[in-house]
Structures
1.
Amino acid sequence: MSVPRSAASGAFWRRRLAGLPLLGPGMVFLFVLAVLPVALVTVYAFFERGRFGGVEFNFTLDNFARLADPLYLGVVLKSILIAGTATGIALLIGYPAALFIARLPRRWRTLALIAVLLPFWTNFLIRTYAWILLLNNAGWINQGLSWLGITSEPVHMLYTEPAVVVGLVYMYLPLMILPLYASLVSHDPQLTEAAVNLGSSPFRVFRTITLPLSAPGALTGCIFVFVPAMGNFIIPELIGGGKTVLIGNLIRDQFLKARDWPFGAALALVMTAFLVLLLVLQQRASRAVSEGKTPKEVKP
Amino acid sequence: MNAPAALPARSRKARGGPRTDAATRPGLHLRLPFWGAIAFLYIPILVVVAMSFNASSNLFSWSGFSLQWYAEVFRSPDILAALGNTLIVAAAAAVLATALGTLTAVGIHRHTSGGLIRAIAIAPAMLPDLLLAIGLLSLFTLLNFTLGLLSVILAHTVFAMAFVTAIVLARLAQVDPSLEEASRDLGASPGRTLLKVTLPQLGPAIISGALLSFTLSLDEFVIAFFTTSPTVSTLPINIYSMVRFGVSPEINALATMLLGLTVLAVLGTQRLTKIADSL
């Protein structure tokens, strides 16, 4: 590691310059391969599409105006609806599961947490593929249903919208459980114990202590699920059979099929702006919760 | 199945009636969702693993044990080429990301006070992968950079580096600064202090960062899909085109092997971090 020794006289400058060999390579790399690409997408969104793909450098706002087209607006709204439904279901399943893990004895907690997270470390496409085997007309769920005598004919499940929701919940459930667990496990158990000893019903303890204290964790979990669910284009394609077009599919197609990069860039920008807005709101909300009248202040 | 519910330390409360019980230890209303979630998470994977040993090519009925699909995987030149590419990309991206991420983290920790550089360094891990993917495709196209292995390696380094930076920064926050001060006071140059004092303390974080980068790259599909050429495919891209073409038993075998690899990597990370921690 070369450090410019005689480069500066003051200690201040020596400190600043000593940072260059450390920060320089990473910053140059990130500027070229992260800042520039995002800037390019931003710029492209304001230009016209080229005749044979690419970009024609004439300023226009048409790409954003096209978003008002009912066709595209519908796709955006459907993406929000489907990602939102998946997030809600993941919260409903994930909350009690996270609460269960948080209340386990310490040595079981880690094991339970690894059990929940391990599927998340397995390949995304394989986990999507697994659902094709399950949901197919001849698949394992239909076989189970007819074996149990519940159905006589196969239920059509694959290539439907609910199947896409199930796939998204499956994919991101661990991301819901992890932050929920982290916030639930950090609570002081004395709070709930005190409430119980003072005669509160379990439901009241849950409603007045556990639920408000875990709200930031729940919000983080919702963001963790909603953000990737919204941009996902593989599940709608493979489990939705391409019939369910979400914003991710639309962006992908603009870049790889329709060759309308500026419109694809505009879509990606709008999606990212929406997600950043959600992140900001989430930060505000969790700050408000942790600063507000929560039982945390009672903590000794 | 319900063994974890027994809590010796609090067993005195267990007889206190169902009301107290519910608030202090996991009851059935929590146990059921947990095991339900576990079943939901594992059954699809288990089906894939089980069917990879199926003798018949029918994916929906079991007709005996066989390893023929594993043999099939190793006979497929496409899959082998994709596997090779994936390993090259993951190894190269892990090395690059670990080097750049570690340097950046140490630099941020020592030489910056504001959050801008930190935010830029961590941002690629938070950005939607699709945005990064189309951005990089636009950049490579604009620069006439040939798409292929190198472009995928660079692209994967971008987000992997962010994870390394975050992990090493978290570790740096716990490191005792007086050791570095002592080294400097005793006359060691900044470079020597970095090599002999700072980096050894960061060992576990650097190792987990490298392994995380490797695993992330191994599994990454979206960015690789956008930044590669049609002739160079990684394993996830290969699986994607296979699944799109139709389900086939080879995918089960390939999937099972990848699952095994991932489980090994996760366990290995845990073990290595523990070893490095005890050094």
2.
Amino acid sequence: MARDLDIVSRRGRLTRGALSVWAVLVYVFLFAPIVLLVVFSFNANRYGTFPITGWTTKWYGQVFHDYQIRDALTTTIRIALEVTAVSTIVGTAAAFPLVRSRLPFRSGIRIAMVLPIMIPGLLIGVSLLVLFTSVFHQTLSPTTAVIGQSVYTTPFVLLLVAARLQGFDASLERAASDLGANTFNRLRYVVLPLLAPAILAGALFAFTLSLDEFIITLFLIGSHNTLPIYIYTQVKFGITPEVNALASLLLAASVTLIAAAFVLPPAIDHQVGES
Amino acid sequence: MALPGSSPGVPATQPADVALPLGRPGRRTWSSWLGEYAGFAPALVLFGVFFLVPLGLIVCYSFWQTVDYNVVHHWTVDNYRYFFSVPTYVSTFWATVWVSFAATALTLVIAFPFAYWLARYVPKQYQKVLLVLVILPFWTSYLLRVYSWLTILGPEGAINRFLHWSGATSKPVSFFLYDRPAVILVLVYLYFPFAALTLYASLERFDWNQFRAAMDLGATPGTAMWRILLPQIRPGITTAVIFVFIPILGEYLTPQLVGGAKGVMIGNLIVNFFQGAQYTRGAAAALLIAGLIVVLLAVFRRSLEVEDPYGT
């Protein structure tokens, strides 16, 4: 193979070796803080850091018995479910005209819809704070946080579904139409099943992003707490093993959801292909 | 691009699914128009009312006045004048630009050799898994990724405990925390996945035979990289720069948690203004950042259109 030729030379091998070492260091850099956090959450010492004086799961027990954490968890999940519903519906619906219609200024609209991902969340949070408090005279609540988070999560769903729609053979739909299917039936039996993997992935991403969202929520949540907000208020007083345990649980939840977002959609795809 | 449809009678130059609306071919009524655009309505409400309008509001606020905690609709540039009349604010503004620049440069310098290694030396079947491992931290909580560094850098953190335990120091050193270097380190950590992903995406498409051809014709590896590789992956590099630099400009949490008084960035100023109910001054500070972002996006618009970092 041609690719192997430049590895044969001594210089090529050296470069390759040096770059491999670099890559290993990069992975250490990326995972060391997270791994340490999890290790400290099982550490018996009450300072939440080194030295490791023994292993315990008692911090996890405290997490589960803390009523503040339980409150925050309920709020977090409620918000995440609502954000997922809003962004999945809005994002999926918007993907159709974005991909299919002869929209004027299509690339401009595309950029405007992706902008919430790019601009700092701080600006979204601050500007919505002004809108809700000074214009709508609304009390801040989990609902205002849902709206703020949805602005940020919807573009992710939109991009995923639009990508799927782009590679979608429109003649399938035309065939269904020729066979007498009306708009609803075409949507129900042809389009949605084919888009399902992308919609599911989008929903899982939206849920995860909402679960972990911090800065927009900080401005819009009012007197309630989500888990990230709760952790933030605790971190101000220093590192505690309980927060390490809670953080590890939240990390595990995110990783599980993201793994699902990568694994489940192709599985559905396979099923659709078979049936 | 849409797949070519198989409808007869449609000029080949037109994508078939655009030329032929679904439903009744050949007839475009207002209802088909409605069907085509109705999906936009919820997005229009969400992005219009809750994204564009608030941003417009911030623009207005930055030109209005606060009198006795009430916002008066009186147009003025006083908020900006005030911002630039306080030396701490001005230096914070420049420090923010500087920190963003340094963190972006460092992120790219670390990410490029990594992406190069991944695209060139790793067998194709493992590339995807290794890439997912890099992106994985990005999908975990942003707050926790910053927090996790406290357990390493903090006065009670891993480094200090280790130094103390090994006898190198007798009391905790706060050198690692509460200053700009700590902020930059954590920012590099946070935004590395963005840079690695975009750089890999463009390196992956590069045809390494061109590289070898250049070297066969006598180019040194350095020349080949500079003259052959770099020009071809330039859009990828620009995208990486944009996607790292812009979010960092608005950073709040990282300087707040690991920066201390010496690591303050403009995001912290904005939050302080808003928490102190100085909405108009906060709006002006926010707009300075937003303006910078708009300028950057306008300048680099073309390369952003070429490259789509989310792979759509």
3.
Amino acid sequence: MPASGSLALPVCALILAPMLLGIVNRTKAVIAGRRGPPLLQPYWDIAKSLRRGAVYGEVTTWLFRLGPVVGLATLAAALLVTPFGGVRAPVSFSGDPIVLVGLLALGRFATVLAALDTGSSFEGMGASREVHFAALAEPALLLALATLARVTGSFALTPVYQAITIGAWADALPTFALVAMTLLVITLVENTRIPVDDPATHLELTMIHEVMVLDHSGPDLGLIQYAAALKVWIVGALLVGLVTPIRSGSVWLDGAAMLVGMVLLAGVIGMIESAMARYRLAQVPQFIVAAATLSAVAFIIRLI
Amino acid sequence: MYALIETIHAAGLLTCFALLSTSRIGACIRWLSFQGILFGMVPLIIPDDGLTTRTLLMAGGSLVLKGIAFPWILLKLRARANYNREVQPFVSFVMSILCGILILSLSVWLTLQMKPALIHAPFVLLNSSIFLIFVGLFLMISRRNALMQVIGYLVLENGIFVFGVITVVGTPLLVELGVLLDAFVGVFVMGIAIYHITREFGSMDVDRLTELRG
Amino acid sequence: MYAGPSIVAVLVLALAGALSCLVLRRPHHVLMTIVGVSAVELLLALNIWTAALGPKGFVTAADQWFYIDAFSSFHIVVLTLVFVLSSAFASIYFTHEAGAFTVYVARRFGVLWLGAQSAMLLVLVSNNLGIMWVGMEATTLLTAFLISLHPSRLSLEAMWKYLIICSIGIAFAFMGTLLAAASIQSDGGVGADALFWTKLGSAEAHLDPTLMKFAFVFVLVGYGTKAGLAPIHSWLPDAHSQAPAPVSAMFSGFLLNTALYCIMRFVPPVQHALGQDFTSGLLIVFGTVSILVAAGFIVFQRDAKRLLAYHSVEHMGIITLGYALGPLGCFAALFHTLNHSVCKSLAFFAVGRLGQRYGSHEMISIAGALRADRLWGVSLLISLLALIGVAPFSIFMSEYQLLRAAIGAGAWVTLVLFLAASGVVFVSALRHMIDMAFGTASRHDRGGRDGKLAVPIVVAAAGLLVVLGVWMPLPLYDAIASAAAVLAGRP
């Protein structure tokens, strides 16, 4: 095995990511008793958006156009440091968890700026909510990654995930379980899924993420949809890498286990979305803080 | 054995955070019951000399009282109230959780201070007991509802129970049973007090009890 | 003679009295019972006292689980004395509440009253710190409903605060007890008598200093809550002002002392492990803060019973301070315990009866008490004068001894603070007192005859205050001196 993985991993991610959204939607449809859209529907949606022309409001500036591009670029960059369970990331260095969280934040910042640039009160409201929740979710993610780093004794994502074996689980069961719960919540929050936000609704009063991107159209919207798929992939990989501790040393076996895990995660998200109702906005911070608490508890337990 | 202790510790901490963040009193009572059962098992797994009548009595007594009897009394009392939510605590739920994390850090620090003197006590359980004590105190001062204050008192009792079990192996059984009996009578008395308060004030909110000052 | 059986007898008698109250048919009979039981208890206590002061220096029963030395026997006597006075007063007080004092209320009162007495006795006689704690917790639970004997909004509020705050305090005290037990543990050698204070205090007990330090802090805060030491006294004024007067008298007169007694039982072991300075320092801080806080609140009081309650905080502070100031200070503190208990009981009796006659405890309402009610007006005057430390009364003597102890110990800062606070208390309480005693009699004056017992109660209590102020009988001096010697670690 090379010290760091090849670029094949991010390329696979770029290709497969929209599929996850397809699985989520299919699961929801099946649970609701419908046949649902085909699994490849997200690809068609993105392709359709990319083919169209864009409409820009008169008051918007270059910030508005920059948003989707930066959003996608940061996530693509984040793919470079994200290991896929036992499969190494192309780039790995001490401190890369902070880079990962920073890249996610930068992408969000660009999206928020673009939303504010429209000057619409709806989008401003969405931006404010997004930032509010992100301010809580980011420390939670950092704490979760820091706890993993603490347990495994290294501060680069690839070695951290290399060290999460079945044996490590047996040693640190409560800690890993708590971190996994945090990561699940963060997956839901970062990707604006139910119970935090409903990606399907278009009621301005209840939306968070969707309301920010209302004004984008054509290729911009396509980029945003693609970025959303990548985000599910990245945050999901952090969670699935933790809960599928199969480290055989073979890239194919580990990768296959992870893929199965990702599909299952998409199914789980679909089931959560079907089973739960969206929280009232006032309850969401509590939900995220509770998640952060889980990893804080995990971290403090490990201090002992 | 250590994994079991660690699991009890982690689950115990989570019950505390659940209590700190839950507004429905029924749910809080169930969490409390779960916590009582969880820590009631501690006497069974701690001592080196295995199961004796003494440990069985202690574990059994605390399981029955804290897992079943107290929750039952509290649920009965809750049924008398018009509403069963802690609507607006003095410290909001999000702040409560953050305070919980602060308390947890404090308890770890205190445990580190005390541990050298208590060589027999397992570190994590010592930590849970101190954490339970402070969370109980926090619940008592940060909640309006009288039942929530009783719940806080019982969390505190749980903490002291665990502390006693892990640090003091030699206290006479008589004393321990006296302690359990005291807790029981305490809950009973508080129950009667709440009964009178609900009848007189039409509510369990203790922030109506503000006429006596200075 | 029969000192050992007497110990068991005081406990059993109080319990039996409590239970018998359950079946009595008339309120009058309940009141008679508590007076009778209390009187017999006093005789038994005196018997135990003489035995404990004998050549052996202690009395023990039940395989050393009960162990009484000069220190505890002194407290037992004060306790039973306060109970006799308060019980007798209760029989007067409740006769005037005939409407509200139904047979059910009477039974409840009788059971809880004697139950509380037996719980406090259990605290004082038991050798085991765990059992002592159980007794202390029992007093909290039993006395809670004495506060709200007549359930009203205010009394329920006071009762709830008392219950919650003291439960927290008691829980802390238990933590301290556990830590004390754990501190022996770390050196091995554990027996059923691990928690006996006779063992903990003896030289052969090897105690871990760190744990004893934690233990004493927990115990001081925990029992200190119950003793009404500032800043954890917040339940005290509420409970004292809302409880019926005899109950307030019992609270102030002895419940607080029981808690202080528990703290002092921990002092010799802690001093063994950590030296003298640690405990003295903490006690001085708590004592001084209590005196200062109480002085601040006394200035602004409107309610007579709350005024007395804050006086209790102040005097608890004084006693605590005394315990911290060496052997002479301990002597002064113990003497002060006796004086304060008697004096505060008398004060609550007077305010209670006057409150009944005026229909209010507001100090504005109780004006011209001397003219309106000769007996209780005079009692109020005497007890308040004694409380603020006016010369011929015994509280002046004990405070004077305390000052000498402070000078002897070189605690100058404490001395200055104490004198300043006493000055404030003196002036403000004197003002309140003059208004109450000499003002123009208010019109809400309801008549009512006091029974045959009223005059003896007042004469006994006031007489004690005056006599002890001018002349200390030698046996009493010896008794207090040997009790103080126990605290200094000399059995």
4.
Amino acid sequence: MDVSVDRRALPILPHRAYRRPRALTAGSVATSVALIAAGEFLVVVFLGRLADHYTRASAFLLPGGTRSSPRPFLGIQLRPLQIQIQPLDYRALLVWFLASVAIAGVLTGTHRIGAPGRYMVIYNLAMIAVSAAYMLFAGELGYGAEAFSELYLRSAVVIWLVIPVFLGGVSLFLPFTMLERVLLVGASFAYNVVFSAVRYALFAWILSWSGAVTMASLYLFFGPLLDFVYMVGVFSMFLVPLSRRLDREGPQDAWTWL
Amino acid sequence: MVVALTAWLVAIVIVMLVYAGRHWLLTLNRLLGHQRPYMQDIVDDDLPGVTVLVPMHNEEQVADGVLTALLGQHYPADRLEIIPIDDHSEDRTQVILESYAVRDPRIRPIYRRGEGARGKPAGLNEALEAARHEVVLVFDADYQPPPDAVRELALAFFDPEVGAVMGRVVPSNTTSGFLARLLDLERSGGYQVDQQARYSMNLVPQYGGTVGGFRRSVVLSWGGFDPYVLAEDTDLTFRLLVRGWRVAYANKVECYEEAPQTWDARFRQLRRWARGHTQTMFRHWRGVLTSPNMTPAQRVDGLLLLGIYTIPPLILAGLALSLSLFVTGTIPLAATILLSFFAVGYNAFGNFAPFYQVGTAGVLDGMRERLFLLPYLFFMFLFNSWAVTLGALDAVIDVVAGRVPTWEKTARFRT
């Protein structure tokens, strides 16, 4: 290659069909892996303290919120929120069941709401209806207030452990800078901790007036599932500047061919 | 009972882990591996004769566009014929075709009327009988091939092992609304990364039924397309592969299409694709396992490709199982979290690209701000899952009840 030519000044951008980012080298990948390992190590080391502050914050946000006694999980002590669930008699359960089925039926026939939104609402109504039906026959759900609170907290802890590996992994072979990698994992983690703590208190508050019929919907739709959505959202926020940068840099500096 | 349900949920998660691994490998290949270019070293004036087929049913909104684009192709006029297949149109399609046929002798329309099988495969069969050339290219009526598309795609057949070729589909109507923009992301992941990586890795690139073509004599040798298969493209891909032919993929041959603009049209399209693809899975899985003409890697990729429309029903089954295990108070934590990941990751069923694959494709394509839409793909996952599950169920019922599927075309939106 002619080194006397400033390759950044070449005016023709490699065609998108066969170009690949140039910045990836074995060294940069190894550094990224080390960074991910360091992030994971920090999470493991501070997991207990983080979980403690997290439940304190949720208890603070929940009116009259208190924490239960410590119980072990993955080598740390968790103190889940004490949740008061509204008891529901068979009449209330019937109302929940019939209302969910009726609203789902109406939504099935309407096209005023966009189809994806409609399907999500119907999915949640179906979970409420199934829960209400189960409670009508079995008396109560498999999870009580205490077990649900512990399940939620355990899920949060597992997701904290997953975040560095997951986001570090999906971004490993994209040409992010080291700072971007740290920010990507750090921002996702910080957002998760804050959002999840607020949501924990919110769930407890919702269950205090709705009863256990909404529990499945809260956990299975608005729980871990939603966590991954905003992780993807944070990921996309870092992809946009990356895409801009690769197109802005000199053609031969950013891309390689075939 | 609870143990059985938990085992089932874990089994679903394992299947999805296999698919996640497949897409991760494809993404890595596109980013790090040597890219296999498409026939770029062939420059030849002695081009083969080409017949272009354009299946049409009530296409008055788009017929002008595709015919004008095809007549503008940089291809020797004496070696190109264009056969629009008017399949029982009830609008002005026939009038438009007649006016083009009078103006240019390369256009030789077929008007299908009366009894007989309807739909794209049946129309293609009739046109194959009338075609004069060995290389047959197909463009759907809403496509607008760029001037060098026919030349580029025809070059693939200089390779004697190539039985079919596929170009890249790019939505042209991304300013029409949110859905078309999301579909643009999906298509990018499916072609820029998935198809190109499968071509580079000598796996199973797929002929997609449009922006592509095949050898006429080969298809006629097995009696043409089955008129009752809804995914004649996937069917052709696997018929070729088990017989030792290869499918070439041309990532540089980009052709614009009109993506569905309404959720209803998208739902019908997905359901039809799922029904056809599942039919094809039933037909070809044994052949893929036993064909002496496929490598072990092609067998694995072929089976995973055939089974890809089983993922949405599996996700829905997984969600139902999670609910069952939740109400009984026995939900397994790790499996539930993984299932959540897959529900988010596999939201782009149109071209089966998880978000990291779509994101990578978007970076390679220079999509910039369009990538902000990535998390919004999540909101399609129940919609997609339901459409695909119904389509797969349709295919099962077709087999069990001996029902004959009928073709349904995707709605057009151009004005």
